[in-house]
Design goal:
By secondary structure, this protein is an alpha/beta fold. 36% of the residues lie in helices and 24% in strands. Strands 5-4-1-8-9-10-11-12-13 form a nine-stranded mixed β-sheet, with helices on both faces. The protein binds adenosine monophosphate (AMP).
């Protein structure tokens, strides 16, 4: 079964204490779509300007990503620049240039409207809702978000939450959304806002699933060296929904399996700048790391 991914399609300029890489392929939808493509066919919804490099389009194509929903318009592609501190956990946004994103109106091609699995990757919640309005009875919808939308578009986000099956957010966002310090309690409060499933990401400390069947904790794959964590969260949720789209049986079991696979794809993402490492990985390498992670987590 296929997955629809909407989100940002960006050029990312990333600075770490060791290196600087301008205008890499990035954006929440790019990371999530590539991650999902290891498991399921992916349909992308986004917008790029006429400065978007052809090799980046070819990279999507190599991953079999359907680009019928990628608008190409005159103007500049969304550009985001960020800088990491020495410990690589703290990041500062240097620039957000919306470019063609400012007027983005996602209109889904007809062939996209019946896609069963929908990932509303990080983008303004009003746009996420607009995509959802055009879908015909999707089987499972996951939304991702970021602190920016909690600050400037909270009402839109709260409207969206009533319509999604799962929300994925990081621990500080869960605290901000609920005003609750304890993430276990925060997850419970988020259920009251709509989503049956809540997944709280805790960076290198893994993630927590809360749902009607109870809780599940998923470790992060322990890495000795992190080159660039940009897009790790998007890779996590992309791998998760891709895996979910191929699963049969209980949703909760599929989510658990999806989280473990998402965690592994995110670990590959962190080993290179932008999408450099993720786009070189194979399904066998992913499964090998999944097996290692399971062995490490066995009690
Ligand atoms: P993550 O590291 O998972 O938080 O995701 C980083 C990605 O989010 C980068 O590739 C950025 O291009 C993208 N991004 C940053 N700011 C925004 C924004 N305001 N809206 C949508 N995507 C963004």
């Amino acid at each position: 079964m296929s997955v629809l991914v909407v989100g940002s399609t960006a050029l990312d300029s990333i600075k770490t204490p060791k290196a600087e890489n301008p205008r890499l392929l990035g954006g929440s939808a790019s990371h999530a779509a590539v991650a999902a493509s290891f498991f399921a066919p992916v349909k992308l919804v986004g917008v790029v300007g006429d400065d978007f490099p052809r090799p980046y389009v070819q990279l999507y194509e190599r991953h079999g990503i359907d680009l019928a929903g990628l608008q190409r318009v005159t103007g500049q592609t969304f550009h985001w620049a960020g800088e990491y501190e020495v410990n690589m956990n703290n990041r500062r946004t240097l620039t957000t240039e919306l470019g063609v994103f400012a007027d983005f109106n996602p209109v889904l091609p007809d062939a996209y409207r019946r896609t069963p699995y929908v990932l509303l990757a990080n983008i303004a919640p009003s746009l996420q809702s607009h995509v959802l309005d055009q879908m015909q009875r999707p089987r499972f919808v996951i939304a991702d978000t970021m602190d920016l939308w909690l600050n400037i578009a909270l009402d839109d986000l709260l409207e969206l939450l009533k319509r999604v099956d799962a929300l994925v957010l990081n621990d500080s966002e869960a605290r901000q959304l609920t005003g609750e310090d304890n993430v276990v309690v925060a997850a419970r409060r988020i259920h009251q806002l709509g989503p049956r499933y809540v997944i709280v990401k805790k960076g290198e400390h893994g993630s927590l699933l809360s749902g009607p069947e109870g809780r599940f904790i998923c470790p992060a794959y322990p890495l000795e060296k992190v080159v660039d964590p940009t897009g790790a969260g998007d890779s996590f949720v992309g791998g998760l929904i891709g895996c979910l789209a191929t699963a049969r049986g209980s949703v909760e079991k599929a989510l658990r399996r999806g989280m473990v696979h998402g965690s592994v794809v995110a670990s590959f993402c962190c080993e290179g700048f932008g999408l450099k490492r993720t786009t070189k990985v194979t399904r066998d390498e992913i499964e090998d790391r999944v097996a290692r992670l399971q062995a490490m987590a066995r009690i």
